[in-house]
Predict the 3D structure of the following.
Amino acid sequence: MKRMLICFLLGAGAGAGGYWYVQQDAGKARLAHARTQVVSGAEKVTGTIKDTIGEISVEDIKEELARTSLVVREKAKVAGQTIAGTTANARASRRA
């Protein structure tokens, strides 16, 4: 019971400290900067996905199906690698 009370008080203190920090001008500025970075990263990923999906045509799928009896999209693999790279860049810039 004593441990639960101590953990509760520590959690409440951490929550109050976090709330106080975010309410300060410096905290708000950092939060706004982080928000813009996340939004720009999401827009880049969205653009990459739209570009990649827009390049896929029915004729390409039919041709690939006739060749290999499987539809494994090379462009989907490339898009996955691009998304992974963009995500890694976003993480690296967030840490900086």
About this structure: The chain has a mean pLDDT of 79. Helices lie at 2-23, 25-54, 58-68, 74-95. The CA atoms of residues 89 and 95 lie 10 Å apart.
